[in-house]
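Got a spare moment? Tell me how you read both lines of this record:
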Amino acid sequence: MKVAVVGKSAHLVKVPLKEHGFTVVKKNPDLVISFGGDGTSLYGERVYPGIPRVLIRHSKICKTCPKHDYATIFNALKAGKYSIVEQLKLEARINNLPQRFIALNEIDIHHKVPHAVRLQVSINGRIIKELVIGDGVLVATPHGSTAYFNSMTGKSFSKGLGIAFNNAVTRDKPLFADENAVIKVKVLRGPALLVSDNSHKMPMLEAGDVITIRKSSQKARIVKIMDKQVKLLRGNFVAIKDI
């Protein structure tokens, strides 16, 4: 099986993978090992979109992490003891231009400090917020609802799309829409940035720009390991029990 590894400490798992008979590659992998945290997971999806990903938590402050024995995880993968769960992704386009910005967690229309932005928000052609003044508007997936969306709203959700208003002067509550909804955000006063997950590509937005956000045809695929010796750390991250 061909496996790619992403993460700043990827070298810690490359040797054990090879010892267990995996071929470590950079192109066209069958699986991706995301060795790190939430940011590594998003990076792995961006670099290898749609390839099944195994999420293994690694912490720099964990002195024993390099000594972890991941044999149970690797043996479960070799034996096919896993399932693949598909997760919703978003895409955003600016002024209906061809380029698409893809996100697993969220699309964020964010102010370019230090100025507040003014935005208008519509769902399926109906204006739901005539004027939002604040730091921006965020559209999240269920996967992303436990991240930035949750820090803004204190809420999470398991279906559909969530719309959060970042530090809005009117303290607007979050809204929720069907996963097939088409959400448009018009910039009434900028400048602003379009942020997709933690990508460094953040195009500038000016007054008059319209950002269309909808469900992407792409899916993220997360590997769920089915072995009693593997525990869930947080979200989809796994490790070996009793280590």
